[in-house]
Every structure is written in structure tokens, then in C-alpha cells.
Amino acid sequence: MADSLLLDPHTYDPTHLDDTSRRLLRATVDWFEGRGKKALLDSYDRHEWYADFLDFAAKEGLFAAFCTPAADGGGDPAKRWDTARNAALSEILGFYGLGYWYTWQVTVLGLGPVWQSDNAAARARAAALLDDGHVMAFGLSERAHGADIYSTDMLLTPDGDGGFRASGAKYYIGNGNVAGLVSVFGRRADVEGPDGYVFFAADSRHRAYHLVRNVVNAQMYVSEFRLADYPVRPEDVLHTGRAAFDAALNTVNVGKFNLCTASIGICEHAMYEAVTHAHNRVLYGRRVTDFPHVRRELTDAYARLVAMKLFSDRAVDYFRSAGPDDRRYLLFNPMTKMKVTTEGERVVDLLWDVIAAKGFEADTYFDKAAKDIRGLPKLEGTVHVNLTLIMKFMANYLFHPAEHPPVPRRHDAADDEFLFRQGPARGLGAIRFHDWRAAYDAHAEVPNVARFREQADGFCALLAAHAPSEEQQADLDFLLALGQLFALIVYGHLILEQAELTGLDSDVLDEIFDVLVRDFSAYATELHGRAATTGEQAAWALAHVRRPVADPQRTARMWARVAGLSGAYEMRP
């Protein structure tokens, strides 16, 4: 039985998008399905560079259409930067394998500094390269410093003719083996401080660009490269000074959003495979899915996966509706990078607990999913980096709501041009949000929404009565426990908004919040156990452990939905 909430390649037709986007997305699905499962798995196992996929993308003009802003598209109506359809493509590519998503993802990142630049020559060059089927790269991180852009060792020395000579190394740079354009971050050797930052465009085919190696043992190419006296012409310079710093952070805001949809795609494919295997296997004289713990684990996995999709889909609307006076997306972005991707890990773990040894078999998609799903929470900092960022919004989000016009569903064929003029990457603590309580109030009749609301209100009471002391605010271990509780409230908020907009079945919504009630209780228990937690805070934590509202009839209906996934999709051999 097809499930309308999950991607099903057999019936996929994104009718919410324009005809050209629908055709390109459907063509992408058809290319993978026509290629078949054996080719997909063999190329993964042999670490084959995905030249055949890039040939397909070039022939179809896929990346050129999806990655070229309308202003640089030469009047082609197919070309625009549309976060809704980019998210759809990201989910499809994740569904078939992390490598295919990764080459797309790092192309998006590589283009970020270009589309934010006023350099018309560089923009025209990037658009032409996309038309020719090239991919791009984002040369930010370094082996000694990671993505710490304050400490870059890529040095640019003025050449006396308005340009520079660049020397230094970059590390962990996707597509760095073939990128037609690499956006490279460095600093001038003759200027101290932020005024010395430079973003420039390099070409991996240049003789002064030296490819060192692939730093991962995988199908994707994650390069180490070195520039040795690389000539940076004035027309290659994208940003200088503080603008270069802002371009780095704002590119991450745009590009790393795709982590969530990759995770969703991986989980969807893994879920079809796992449910089909478990539901058709007999152990000890019983169907595996007749065991109560198996049903619970698979139902939890399904509920978590649907929640991931609901949150991410609604976050798209906030990205597309953003502007100088509405930067709420800057909270929802680290939520997708941290919360949605870690939920993806939990989904795969639940499925793996059910299918056990089957999850190691080489002829399954699952054993690839089990490995690749781990990378997504770690491809943009780590969980603690994003949680620390999320905490910057907590006071205004919980206690100081502001009026904002309602954000509609954004499936229109519009160019999200604000994403390339986000401005200075600061002032996060001043961003105001609409009242989160309204979404919870609108679904108060759903038993587990109401129960979770009790916990959320209790969290606000904790902060009002027993706010973290200065010492606790300096204790990252304590703050991370607190941050997980706050993140759940934000997560539930957008899930509820999307449920309202899509008319989500109340059984599914209740089941999702059954999970969130248990998660809140688990994180409250973690807070109770932290060494820095005070007696009053610990007492609060235990007092807000809740059991979800049980409903055997709802549980039975939800299981029927999950069991219906058995045999619903299987990739052609």
C-alpha cells in the first residue's frame, strides 16, 4: 500500500511544483530506477565516481536549472533558486545514496559565495559552467583548523597588478577533484584582522591547483588540495574583508539546510526495505512483526520519520518568506541540521534493531544507509555546535513573541533571492518569533499534544523560577541538556503548523507527540543527572517526566499504516 507521507518512486509526481520542475525531478527518479539496484550498490561498494549521474544531470540541465538564480539565468524560466524544489531534489538524491546527494550539496555550497557577490564576471562564469554540466566546490575548511575561519592559513600575497598569488591547503573539500569553480576562503598576508579576509574563485583544472588525495574511503570524492602561487586575478575575487566572513556563514545557512532532506530520503528507502523484510520473516513460528516490541519500534521509526518531513517542509516556507525583517529561518536552519539529522540516526537504529543481521548484508540498501546516516549530523559542525546556536534564540522565542504576518505554504515558482543578500551574520539574539503557543492551542484536542504542552509550559516555568546561573551558563554539558528540551518545543511547533496546513491524520499527529512526550521525559532525566544541576532544577526535572496518553485503537491503526509499507516499494534489481 502506497503511503502518501513517504516518497514512493513508483507513484512520485510532485504536483505542488511547476511542470518543468516536475519533469526534471521525475526524470531523476526514472534515471535511478532504470539503472537498477545492482548498479547502485555495486558502484557504492567499488567506490566508483558517479560520472554517469553527472552526465545525466548535465544532459538534463538539472543543476543549471536548480542552482542558477533567476537574475543569472539569461531569461530561462526554468532557472531559479527555489528552496522548495531544491528540497525535493535533495530528498530524492538521499533516497538513492549519500554520494549523489553530496555532489549536489557541495555544488550548492560552492555557489553560495558567488551568488552573494557583486562580481558580474564571476557570476557569469559560474552560470556558464553550470550550463556546461560542471559541479562546484566550497573551499573553506583546513586540516589544522576545520571550519574555523578565524584561523585560515590560505594566504594571498598582492601581485602588484590588483590581484594576488594564493598559497595554502584546503581539506575535506567535496568535488575538489573536478570542480569547475572552487570558492576558496583565505586571508591577505599583508592585512591583519577581518579586513584581510578574501573569498576568491579557483579552477581545479589550473596547473597551480594540486589535488593531493581523497581523504575518505567512499564513493564520493572529499579532497585535499593545495594552491601553490595560484594567480588570483581581480575578476576572481568574490568578497573581501568582513563581507567574505559573512559570505562563509550565510552560505552555510543556505546550503547546509539540505542535510535534513538527505536524511529523510535515506530513512525512507531504508524503511521500505526494513518493513518488507521484517513483515515477511517468520521466527519461532511467528511473523516477526507479530512481536509487540517490533511493532513499537517500527511504529516509532515511522512516526519519527514523518515528523522529520513535517518539520523540514514547514521550515522551507520560512526560508522562502524570509527578509531583512524576518530572519526566523536562522533558528529553523540549525534545527534541521541538528534535530532532523539526529532523528534520522534514531530511525535507522530502530529499524536496525528489528532487522538485525540483515542490516549488514551487502545486497541491501540498508547497510549503506546505516553507515551514511551517521555523517549528516556531523557534516556541519556537530550536535553541540548547532545546539549552542539554537540556544541563542531561546529567550525571545519562549518569552517575547512578536506579531508576524502568517507564513503561507511556499510552493510557488519564485526565486528565493533574499538568501543571497542576507547581510551581516550577527544579531541573532534580537530576532523575534511569533507565539509558539498558538500552534499548540490549535491542536489541544489531540491527547499527546496536550500532554507535551504541559511539559513545554513547565520548561518555561523552570527558566522563570530557576534560570541557569552564570556558572551553569559556562558549563556546556549542562546547557546541552537544557538545549535539547528547548529544541523539542521548537520541533513540535513547526510539526503542528505543517499538520494544520496539510490536514495530517490525527492518529499520526498523536503518535508523533507520543514520541515527543517520551523524548522530553528522557531529556529531563538527563538534566536531573547533570552534575551542575541544582536541587530545585533536579526536582523540576523529575516532576515533568510524563507518560504519553495510551490509545490501543490508535496504536492498531498506526500499525496498519506501517504494515502497509511491506512490499509497497522495492527497487528494480
Automatic annotation (TrEMBL):
Residues 245-394 form the Acyl-CoA dehydrogenase/oxidase C-terminal domain. One of its GO terms (molecular function) is acyl-CoA dehydrogenase activity. One of its GO terms (cellular component) is plasma membrane. Belongs to the acyl-CoA dehydrogenase family. The keyword Iron-sulfur does not apply. Pfam families: Acyl-CoA_dh_1 (PF00441). It comes from Micromonospora echinofusca. Keywords: FAD, Flavoprotein. This is Acyl-CoA dehydrogenase.
